[in-house]
Fold each of these.
Amino acid sequence: DPSILALARKIQLHEEPAFNRDYPERIQCEVRVEMQNGQVRSTRYQLVHGDHQFAMSDQELEAKFRWLGEDLLPPARASDLMARIWQIDQITNINDFMTLLQSMLNPRQW
C-alpha cells in the first residue's frame, strides 16, 4: 500500500540512553507523533507484549508471522517457512538454511 509506505518513510527512530540504562529491569519506549499543525502528542510504553517478561504464545507468534508476511508469501509458503523456523535449533549448517530461506522468499519459485 503506497500510503503506508509513505507514512513509514516519515518515521524516525532515536535511542534514549535513559531507557537503555534501565534495561532489563524496565523495558520501555516513547512514541511521539508530530501532527500536521505542529502539535506533538506522546505516550510512553513499558514492558511490551512479546518481550521476554511478557512473552507471546506460540499461537500469537504464528498469527503475527502470518499477518506480517501475508503480502509477501502465499499462505502455504508461509506455513512451510514457519515450520522450518520452528525447527531452527536442529539446523547444522546456517548457510543451507539461508539458501533455503532465499529460495522460499523468491516469488519466481512459487
Amino acid sequence: TFTFVNSCGSSVQRTTNITVNSICNPPVISNLSTDKNPVPFFTTANITFTVQNASSWTVTSSLNNSITPSSGTASSGSIVYRRDASLGPDSVTVTATGPCGTTSASIVIN
C-alpha cells in the first residue's frame, strides 16, 4: 500500500501488486562440431551442436550450400551439410532464439 500526500497535506492510499521476474538467461550454443572438414564438392558432413535456454534454432551457410534440417526446436541439433552451391571457406552459423535473446555461433567448413 502506498500513501501519496500533496503539498496541501491531503493524502490518498493505493494498493498495487508488484511482480519480480526471475533472472532471464540468454541462449547458449555449445559443442558445435563437424565430422568432416574439408568437405569436397557434392559430398556431405554431419554438423552437431547443443543449445540451452532456447525455444528454436536455425542454421545458415554463408555460401548457400544445403543444410537439412535448417531449423528446429530440440535442445540438440544434428544437421547434414551438403556442399552443392559453392566451394571455398563456408561459415555455417547456428542461431538460437529464446525468451531472453538470440545467440549465434559459427564453424568454418573448408
